[in-house]
């Protein structure tokens, strides 16, 4: 994969949507820097950039709830990534919920 097609923002980050590859549920939104994206492509497990800790974050490294990559796409502008993943364990959210998107607005 030619990473020059990915448009990282001024902080060197790109937003990533993690979606369940079986049922299409959007599980979470996170960010990657170039190193996180390279590690994800190499290991086929999601590695993000933690904006709060300012370090790489291998999803599930402490909880065991890893995300195995099935497919990855970048959008037409190259400034967002969709990762279709297999969520190991029941939750992707740090709250213990399956998805981070559980707070209904309307």
Question: Can you characterise this structure?
Answer:
- The protein is mainly β and 106 residues long.
- The chain has one domain (3-87): Roll (Ubiquitin-like (UB roll)).
- The protein has one helix spanning 34-43; strands at 14-20, 26-32, 47-50, 55-58, 67-74, 81-87.
- A four-stranded mixed sheet has the order 2-1-6-5.
- The model has no long low-confidence stretch (mean pLDDT 96).
In short:
With 106 residues, the chain is mainly beta. It is built from one helix and six strands.
Key words describing this protein structure:
1 helix; globular; mainly beta; two-stranded antiparallel sheet; 9% helix; Ubiquitin-like (UB roll); 106 residues; four-stranded mixed β-sheet
CATH class: Alpha Beta
Helix content: under 10%
Distance between the termini: 39 Å
The SSE string, one letter per element, is EEHEEEE
State the helix count: 1
Say how many strands there are. 6
Question: From the alpha-carbon coordinates, what is the Rg to the nearest angstrom?
Answer: 13 Å
SSE inventory with pairings:
Blueprint: E1 14-20, E2 26-32, H1 34-43, E3 47-50, E4 55-58, E5 67-74, E6 81-87
Parallel strand pairs: 1-6
Antiparallel strand pairs: 1-2, 3-4, 5-6
């Amino acid at each position: 994969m030619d990473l020059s097609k990915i448009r990282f923002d001024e902080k060197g980050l790109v937003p990533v949507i993690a979606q369940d590859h079986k049922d299409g549920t959007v599980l979470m939104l996170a960010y990657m820097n170039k190193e996180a994206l390279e590690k994800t492509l190499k290991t086929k497990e999601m590695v993000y950039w933690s904006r709060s800790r300012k370090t790489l974050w291998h999803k599930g490294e402490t909880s065991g709830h890893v995300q195995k990559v099935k497919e990855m796409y970048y959008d037409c502008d190259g400034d967002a990534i969709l990762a279709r993943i297999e969520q190991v364990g029941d939750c992707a959210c740090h709250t213990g919920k399956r998805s981070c998107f559980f707070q209904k607005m309307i």
